[in-house]
Amino acid sequence: MEAVFISKLKPFLDAVAEQMELYVPKKVEQHYIYSRYDPSADMPAEFNNIRTCTTVKEFLFPMCELAAVYPAPVEPKDIKPFAVFGLKDCDLRSIEILDKVFAEEEFKDTFYVTRRENMFIISSDCFEPGESCFCNLFGGQPFAQSGFDLNVSQVRVGFIIEAGSDKGKDFIEKHSRLFTGVPEAALAEQGENRARAQKQLEQNNAEYQLDAPIKEVVENSQGSDVFDIEAKDCVECQGCTRICPTCHCFYLYDTRQKDYFTKMKMWDSCMRQAYAEVAGGANPHKILGDRIKHRFMHKFVYFLDRYGIDMCVGCGRCVQTCAGGMDIRAVLKKLSEEVKGKGKRQAKVAK
Amino acid sequence: MSQNPYQPINGEIADIIDESPTIKTFVVVPEEKFRFETGQFVELTLPGEGEAPFTPSSSPAETEKMEITIMKVGRVTALLHECKKGQKVGIRGPFGNGYPIDDFRGKEVYIVGGGVGLAPIRSLFLTLVDRIKDFKSVVCRFGARTPDDFIYKNTLFGSWQKIAGVNMKLTVDEANDNWDGNVGVVTTILAADDVEIKNAVAVVCGPPIMMKFATLNLLDFGFAAKNIYLSMEKNMSCGIGKCGHCMIGKYYVCKDGPVFTYEQIKDYPDIWD
């Protein structure tokens, strides 16, 4: 992989911003959120040590967008190339998941696909995985593995920048005057930083290791009362689904304008009581515990069956957000214990 | 067709037929030719108000116009019931899979329907009748709450009964003075010897409670779960398996259905809710 070195972040970000709109993490209290980078405004070029609070899905699948204008269709406004800096491995894998849904061969969502094609992805290493991070339980790493155009690793003396795509390579070539070769010591430090972050993740999540594959654990929980127990603390705020980088349910609604009509597409949540209700009143998910169960089933069983990957990247945003203190890792662990217990009981009966 | 899956085709309501106190059939003329397979569904938009999923009740052989039978049951359908001839509408689709008619060839097709569930069944029935020689027979068992609640009364009580190769029985939950037929829910007119089960497929469409008990009856008769076709109704919205509202287990009713075999969905909880 082609790698170069730069001692300061600002000239690099300025070069990106010269070419296209750039969004960078900005620290707000203890969280990072995305904001538009303005090279002239003396904006600090900040390296986020941990994933942002908001998710990358907002760039590809905005909270509310125009889906169609009728009766006379209007071509969607040109979506211009844009770049996002500071995405972590969990974010990249969430894009992979959204691609499965919205860029699916026969059923493409044209809005998503256009944004996706215009997005320049600049990922970066996780320096300090948070308490709620558990990407390691889902095959994730505290550094980007694939799916980026450029990746940035911070070291004491500067930043290592690697290309992960032709677009990324072209960028490095075009701006070669900004970069130098990577010092030997910097490479060694990058490796140490990554190993330290990995170890941190393993330590944080040691107690949540499951005894069986996640799919098996969740599939076997169909009759479990764990979901109804969790539901007692749930206040139905839907925060978990809004903040989840892989949740992608949406709601279509129509509006009346002066001389035309629109269809709008807005995020929805399977935690909402009337989510699956039909006009006649039938509703397969009337009970909150059933809705929580459906969310787990969708993430760890149904999605896997259909697309071959889990619909969770272990970013831990839902853990941080939940007003009721639900921790998805702890729920999975409880279910896993239950399955183990069931297995033992069955073994006993068999004897 | 537009590349954008959310863009409706423009159309107009050309005629409205009163079927029952709560059900009307809307004859919709799309601006462009519209093809669908029997059993597939469309999203019908009332401009500025919203859209809802319906399986057309007309034959797919008809591409210039389409009939959609609608029961007044929610917000959008209540507004549609207030519409007059000439009302502009939007149509998205067709979505999902239809009935696998070719697999029915040479077999007896046992159709159990109730209430407004006769809407998709009418489209299927017309399609089967068009090539009736391809099937050993078409056996229909239809129910409604009262005689007045039957839809397609003219043809149902008339010409459909006389088609060679068609065997039809009707029932109502509550009779009136003009009714001399069977009284009872639709399962009361199902019998194990209605068809030769080894060489038959069953199609069920109606209210969830009726579908549940009809399916249980058919299983009792010895129908294999893979030979019972159910037209499932969930909260289909996007039509392309993304928005999530219509999931039954791993299936999106809008994309993988709305026609499922009982075999496909029998292990999921709450399929009848």
Can you lay out the helices and strands and say which pair or pack?
The complex is a heterodimer of chains A (351) and B (273).
Chain A: E1 3-6, H1 9-19, E2 21-28, E3 31-36, H2 57-60, E4 64-70, E5 82-87, H3 89-102, H4 110-117, E6 119-124, E7 150-155, E8 158-163, H5 166-174, H6 184-205, H7 214-219, H8 226-231, H9 239-243, E9 250-256, E10 261-267, H10 288-307, H11 317-321, H12 328-350
Parallel strand pairs in A: 2-5, 5-6, 6-7
Antiparallel strand pairs in A: 1-8, 2-3, 4-10, 7-8, 9-10
Chain B: E1 9-20, E2 23-30, E3 41-46, E4 50-54, E5 66-71, H1 75-81, E6 88-95, E7 108-114, H2 118-130, E8 137-144, H3 153-157, E9 166-172, E10 182-183, E11 200-205, H4 208-221, E12 228-231, E13 247-248, E14 251-252, H5 253-256, E15 259-261, H6 262-265
Q: In summary, what is this structure?
A:
The complex is a heterodimer of chains A (351) and B (273). With 351 residues, chain A is of the alpha/beta class.
Describe the protein's architecture and organization.
The complex is a heterodimer of chains A (351) and B (273). Chain A has twelve helices and ten strands. Chain A has 351 residues and is of the alpha/beta class. Chain A folds into two domains: 193 residues, no CATH class; 137 residues, no CATH class. In chain A, the strands form two sheets. A seven-stranded mixed β-sheet of chain A has the order 1-8-7-6-5-2-3, with helices on both faces. The radius of gyration of chain A is 22 Å and the shape is globular. Chain B has 273 residues and is an alpha/beta fold. In chain B, α3 links the parallel β8 and β9. The interface between A and B is large, with 48 and 45 residues.
